[in-house]
Amino acid sequence: MKNLNFVAVLTIATLLASCACSPSQSDTSSAADSSASATTSTEVSGDYYETLTVTFHSNGGSEVASQTLNYATKATRPTDPTREGYTFLNWYWDEVCVTPYDFNLKVFAPLDLYAGWKEGSSPATSSSSEASSSESDVTYVDYYLAGSFTSPSWKPDANYRLQEDPSGNNLGVLTGLSLTKGDKFKVVKSSDGSTISDWYGGNTSAASGQSGWHTDTSDNNNVVIDTTGSFTLYLNKDKLVWLAKE
Fold first, then answer.
1. What are the backbone dihedrals phi and psi of residue 58, each rounded to the nearest 5 degrees, phi first?
2. What sign results for the dihedral spanned by CA atoms 185, 189, 192, 196?
3. Which residues are CB-contacts of 129 (< 8 A; sequence separation ≥ 6)?
4. How many angstroms separate the CA atoms of 222 and 153, rounded?
5. DSSP label at residue 202
6. Mean pLDDT per 10-residue run, the chain (246 residues)?
7. 14, 115, 119, 200: most buried by Cβ count inside 10 Å?
8. Number of other residues whose CB lies within 10 A of the CB of residue 159
9. Which is nearest to 109 in space by CA: 131, 93, 132?
10. Which fold has domain 51-136?
11. Global pTM?
12. Where do the DSSP E strands lie in 108-183?
């Protein structure tokens, strides 16, 4: 009898241990759901805009509607705003209205543009002519961006042509440069916008301290964008590229 009791107790203990160590069906399903959720979350992460908004700040003038664009398309120049006692000059990248915006550029991230004004009224036609004149006053240099996002890829792109640096401290600058995380590029020397005579990579001596980008020393010193945003690009006189996040 004692042996039978011992066997019964041992059997019950084994069953209890089995139940404690084996997950139930609901526990298994819950774990699977959590794993699937984590995978889905990872798959949808990243910086990319299917559509994006260009916002026009009229700076005291009449309201100008924003534009919703597809990724890598161009904004349309809106009808010039009006403001009593002022003449509209142009749309600018910056709030202080120094650098005119070029509507031939493709847009890769949400963009804010600012209306520039000159005090005093003038004939209705002068507003558009001054805007055109302001754009034509920009002096371009023979340096272009070529990279993963240019069209065609890694070829000089007229949408990314550097401008003359008024200070004379750099070979060229490009303000309001909208870039997306993962973009890679170099600045290229091209006299006609097609043939490449030289390539200029990132500033390896300073890149580690910069924000939003780095130089890939293992891949021809390409500039690699770490954070989607707007940048000012400089090509210094040592022919090294560096960026300042706007």
1. -85, -5
2. negative
3. none
4. 14
5. B
6. 46 44 43 38 47 94 95 91 91 86 88 92 48 61 93 89 88 91 94 87 68 88 92 90 85
7. 115
8. 15
9. 93
10. Immunoglobulin-like (2.60.40)
11. 0.48
12. 111-119, 140-147, 161-163, 170-179
3-state SS, residue 225: strand
Q: Which residues are within 8 A (CB) of 79 and not within 5 positions of it... i.e. 6 or more apart?
A: 64
Environment class of 147 (CB within 10 Å of its CB; exposed 0-12, middle 13-18, buried 19+): buried
Q: Kindly report, as residue ranges, where domains of CATH 2.60.40.4270 are found in the chain.
A: 51-136
Q: Left (φ > 0), alpha (ψ -120 to 50) or beta: where does 168 sit?
A: left
- CB burial readout 11-47, b (16+ within 10 A) else e: eeeeeeeeeeeeeeeeeeeeeeeeeeeeeeeeeeeee
Q: Which residue has the tokens 């770490």?
A: 226
Amino acid at 104: N
Rounded distance between C-alpha atoms, residue 74 and residue 109, angstroms: 11
pLDDT at 113: 96
SS3 179: strand
Separation CA 208–CA 217 (nearest Å):
11
User: Domain 140-245, what fold?
Assistant: Immunoglobulin-like (2.60.40)
What pLDDT shows up at residue 121? 65
Helix (H, G, I), strand (E, B) or coil at 224: strand
**Burial class of residue 128, CB neighbours in 10 A (0-12, 13-18, 19+):** middle
CB 228 within 8 A of CB 174: no
Measured in residues, the chain has a length of 246
